[in-house]
Amino acid sequence: MMRQCNRDAWDKTYRAQVSSEYWEDECQEFSFMDLPRRTRFIRHAVATLILLPLALITAMSLCDQLARASGSLNILFSIPVWYALMGAAVWVVLGSSRLFTSSLLYLYVLGHELTHALAVICSRGSIHAFKADLDGGYIQTDKNNIFISLSPYFLPLWAMLWGLVWGVTYLFWPTVTCQAILYSGLGFWWCFHLFWTAWIIPKDQPDLADNGTFFSLILVYFANLLLFLALLRLFNAVSLHRFLADCIHNAEKLWDVLRDLAMLAAGLFL
């Protein structure tokens, strides 16, 4: 969550709200409506006219790619896809068992705030306070931008760390077993990221509201689609050349649909 503090006008606070209670301090809450009207209009326009069509085209093209991949047994039963599905199955079992809910929730909140912190560091900012527990978390920083606010919603930190640790391990243990561990872990942590992100977004997250909820949701959705595409490419489940061709084809289809709807609306109201 981002708030502007009375004691330091440049301090910003980003937080994950897990419970219905807000973390309180001597800060005055900042909202999207505090932005200039022109900035709000530009963000809504970008979300509606650019990000939303791109997200729809990307989603349609990914569906086309997955439909082709599902018909190929070589891809479906390949080592990357098979072990990723096994990792996802492990997450489904753990998530549905509720035996480790508190531990997994804490792990998500910790990862959420660490992602904020890493985004601040990448943006050359400073971190003044950090907190993560089962009731939520926050960081206080002197830097503020959209990347810092929304990064936890599309960057799967634990999956990225898993890949980093695996990369170092693979240098000393380049075996098929090591590859299986990588893909299983990616499947598990990706499902972990998607589940908790979908779970926490409806809980009135200030990170989303501060940048405009509609704009933030479209941007998060589009970014997750692109990361999912990268993951599928890592698994050799999609072809970038065919994906781009599908994007062009689906863009033409979407344009035709919008044109027909516009003509229909014009015929009804004119």
TrEMBL record:
Keyword vocabulary terms for this entry: Membrane, Transmembrane, Transmembrane helix
Segments crossing the lipid bilayer: 41-63, 75-94, 153-173, 180-201, 213-235
Domain of life: Bacteria
Protein name, entry field: Uncharacterized protein
Taxonomic source organism: Akkermansia muciniphila
